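subagent[fold] <- orchestrator: predict structure for attached chain, return tokens only, no commentary.
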Amino acid sequence: MSVRPTPSTLLFVPGDRPERFDKAVASGADAVIIDLEDSVPAANKATARSAVVSWLASHQAFVRVSPAGTDECAADLEMLSSAEGVSALVLPKAESPDDVDHLLERVKLQTQVVALIESAAGLAAAAAIAAHPAVALLGFGNLDFAADCGMTVESPRELELLPARAHLVHVSRAAGLPGPIDGVTPDVSNDDAVLEDSLRAARLGYSGKLCVHPRQVPVVAGAFAPSPEQVDWANRILASVAEGVALVDGAMVDRPVILRARNILARAGRPG
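subagent[fold] -> orchestrator:
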């Protein structure tokens, strides 16, 4: 099971700020994630749930619930059982396939799950989580993961997290899922950092990135969209295959090159 089409921009909006829901949709993000977890203070949880149910009566969105097994998660899922517009459940701090089962057993919805890997335990179980039939995508919770591991991630490039990021790409591919969704860039005023983080994620094989502010959406979208030069190269590669040409721009055209060309065109919305 996978989210179709795979979103490249996923924008969080706090569940206790209903005045921002429509603005989030208007941002152009591929998916809006209404958050009932970290961005909502405990005192506002009940009000947020009510606002979310009301808005979902006439809209579609992803919803991030509280971690599986918590009282807050139980209350979230009870509320969502009566909601109509849940496109997918976003499960934070996923650490086993049982966490996914916990959600599905308690919510009366036929829905997909985006499982966020945010701890060492979650990373160790990532392959099993990705293989769960209800899981459509994996996501990387970079900030929580670094904190869980006691990492002092001071470099804006987060080189310390590259092994974890790459592992999620590998297990997603092995499970037949699209590339995972990368975590947030918290500095909403630094477009250059968002762009650099997004380009790195795309190079690693990620399908998209979580956004925490509407201004990040076009930056992320541009990073994950292939350039005109890449699209032109991909078209020439596939044309050469049809014509039986073995070399393009002096380089051999073999199966990995053909697959890369097809991936580029797929990302551009032009399947080859």
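orchestrator: received. Logging for downstream: The chain is about 45% helix and 15% strand. The beta strands are 9-14, 31-35, 61-64, 86-91, 112-117, 135-140, 181-182, 208-211, 247-248, 251-252.
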